[in-house]
Fold this sequence. Notes:
Keywords: Cell membrane, Cobalamin biosynthesis, Membrane, Transmembrane, Transmembrane helix
Number of helices: 11
Largest sheet: 2 strands, antiparallel
Membrane topology: Multi-pass membrane protein
Distance between the termini: 10 Å
Order of helices and strands: HHHHHHHHHHEEEEH
Helix content: over 70%
Shape: globular
Subcellular location: Cell membrane
GO molecular function: ABC-type vitamin B12 transporter activity; threonine-phosphate decarboxylase activity
Structural class: mainly alpha
Protein name: Cobalamin biosynthesis protein CobD
Radius of gyration: 20 Å
Strand content: under 5%
Amino acid sequence: MEIFVLISIFAYFMDLIVGDPYGFPHPVIYIGKLISLLERNLRKLKINMKLAGALLCLILMSSVALITYSICKLASVNIYLYIFVSAVIVCTCFSTKCLADEGKKIYDSFEGNNIELSRKQLSYIVGRDTSALDEPDIIRATVETIAENTVDGTISPMFYAFIGGPILAILYKAVNTMDSMIGYKNERYIDFGMTAARLDDIFNYIPARISLIGFTMASFILRYDYKSCIKIAIRDRKNHTSPNCAYPEAAVAGALGIELGGTNIYFGQKVYKPTIGEKKRKIVKEDILKTNRLLYLSTFLTLILFIVISLFINKILF
């Protein structure tokens, strides 16, 4: 377990320094290509779509686990090489710097009063239709995405890296990628993507709830409304179609004193979501920067929490 702690620490700070450099052969790219390939071929079989979707999950997760195991096994000839290779793999599962950078780009786009650029920048990180969004809606969508992906992009893979190292971390990333590609409740994916969506809910269940500790502590340190952070998170935790997404979104909404949620358009369909938080004031572009600060500090504090818990368990058991 101690080596997984070391790998996770290196991976976290590697991500903060390097992020996701353009041109890097990121595993998610190849995971996404494999998902698309499997989907095309499984649909040709003309079998039950729920079964086809479950087979996709099984094949993808088995393939990703086997490939990751093989790479780590080859690197295990030297302990330092193993730690480095494993840290690189886990680092690719984190997206703290990348997420904050994308949020900052959207914030910067408002400086030139270029609403079209803001919509375009937002479209890179959300699945909803951004073509008709006004400035408050763009800010709201950005804050929601950063909040939700604080869990999906860092806290969840960190949680699994501490438990099972690079293999479990990359398995989580595969599940999360499947959900983002096929886990929709529209006509095409309601059956085919059901298993992927359920797996993502299961994998994120514990990390989403753990995130409240990091968000609350970060809100206290940053002098945001830490009391409302935890209060709104508990009150509005069910105000989302996902059993997990409302936790980070409500925590951020409470900390900033703003309202999130509401109606959005996905693939031409209007999707209503309950509101989250309390509208104590109007949402402004500076809320993007505040959410970025929560992202950085809450993930760092969660890292410290996981280190303490891991070392404590290691001392008790070993």
